[in-house]
Every structure is written in structure tokens, then in C-alpha cells.
TrEMBL record:
Top-level taxon in the UniProt lineage: Bacteria
Name by which UniProt lists this protein: Flavin reductase
Residues of the Flavin reductase like domain: 18-173
Pfam families named among the record's database cross-references: Flavin_Reduct
Phylogenetic lineage: Bacteria, Pseudomonadati, Pseudomonadota, Alphaproteobacteria, Rhodobacterales
GO molecular function annotation: FMN binding; oxidoreductase activity, acting on the CH-NH group of donors, NAD or NADP as acceptor
Length: 201
């Protein structure tokens, strides 16, 4: 099968989301200029550089009560900071609840019954029991093709690691089983890992 996206795929559901998988989920917490907290999951998320450490996430939709984007991007435009919270399998239901479309002034932490904690470097809330949280200063917001598609880049300025996830000096993802997005309504979790040594190592 071959198709051009501009002409449609002819399938019952869009296969694109199922092709680029698995995708890590960035549970993005932000705070607006009035001090109201927001929490939302984004599966267009990844790390993009080591030195300095940098991450990105993409927002691809719009809300009626926000000008041309979603709450997360609107808040980051105001404050210049955000926090990426890593989602574990045990938090899958709360993560899903936080994806609900709520009024701009609603607190998704409260809606999803997620305990919040303060960040150390930036003025933002974080998910208190997340396996890891990355405090970020926004470096740029890039408008990409599409009516409401924005990519947010941030430099990681603070890192929280849950103590039980650090084993023998390594951050061990099998201790919490990262939740990852597949296509359609499908998800998966990481339960096992294997090592491959690069030729130059």
C-alpha cells in the first residue's frame, strides 16, 4: 500500500500515529501568569540534545478558550518555563484523566487527583511521585506547518529522580515501567531491556 497524505489513506483510522511508535509521553506541567497550574500529556515528546540537556514537545491542537493553541503552550508563552514529568504505567489512568478538555482556569492536577510538588529551579508545579521530572526553561517555540502546530523546546535546568528508580548508579526504567503511546488508542509499557554495544565503544 502507498498513499499520499494530501490525498488521504482510505483506511478507517489514520495509520500515521501507528507508524512512529512507541512514543514516550511527556506529562507537561505549566503555570500561567496568574499562578494557575495545568497538567497535560503529549506523545510528540523527546529528548533532543545532551549538552546542555534539552527536550521538545509538540502541541497540535487548539482550545476555544485559548488563542490559537492549547493551555500548555499559552502558559509557556507567558512564563517561559515548564516541567516534563515521566509517566509510569501505574499512573496511566491519571494521565488519561488529565488529557480531558477542561476550561483554561481548571487545575488538571486536582481533576486527575495527582499530587503536586513544587519545582526547585523554576516557578512551576510538578508531579510529586513521578519517576523523573525535568524542570525546563523554554528556549524557543517554533510554528510548524498546520493551523495550530507548535514545537516547544526547553533546556533542562533541574532533574528530579525518584530514589527507587536509581539502582547501582543507573536510572533503571524497569523499576517503574515507562508508559508509551502507540497508534490509535493503544499504549504499551517497557518491561525488559537489552544492551547493544556500539562499534566505537
Amino acid at each position: 500500500m502507498f498513499y499520499r497524505p494530501e490525498n488521504g489513506h482510505g483506511l478507517p483510522h489514520n495509520p500515521f500515529n501507528a507508524i512512529v511508535t512507541p512514543r514516550p509521553i511527556g506529562w507537561i506541567s505549566t503555570r500561567d501568569a496568574d499562578g494557575r497550574d495545568n497538567l497535560a500529556p503529549y506523545s510528540f515528546f523527546n529528548g533532543v540534545a545532551y549538552v546542555p540537556p534539552q527536550v521538545m514537545f509538540a502541541s497540535t491542537g487548539v482550545k476555544d478558550d485559548v488563542d490559537g493553541t492549547k493551555d500548555s503552550v499559552a502558559n509557556i508563552r507567558q512564563t517561559g518555563v515548564f516541567c516534563v514529568n515521566i509517566v509510569e504505567y501505574a499512573a496511566r489512568e491519571a494521565m488519561n484523566l488529565s488529557s480531558a478538555t477542561l476550561p483554561h482556569d481548571a487545575d488538571e492536577f486536582a481533576h486527575a487527583q495527582v499530587e503536586k510538588a513544587g519545582c526547585d529551579v523554576i516557578d512551576c508545579a510538578r508531579v510529586a511521585n513521578a519517576p523523573a521530572s525535568l524542570e525546563c526553561r523554554m528556549t524557543q517555540i517554533v510554528k510548524i506547518e498546520g493551523a495550530a502546530n507548535f514545537v516547544v523546546f526547553g533546556e533542562v535546568v533541574g532533574v528530579h529522580l525518584r530514589d527507587d528508580c536509581v539502582v547501582d548508579g543507573r536510572f533503571d526504567v524497569t523499576q517503574y515501567e515507562p508508559l508509551s503511546r502507540l497508534g490509535y488508542r493503544d499504549y504499551t509499557r517497557v518491561r525488559e531491556v537489552f544492551e547493544i554495544i556500539r562499534p566505537d565503544d
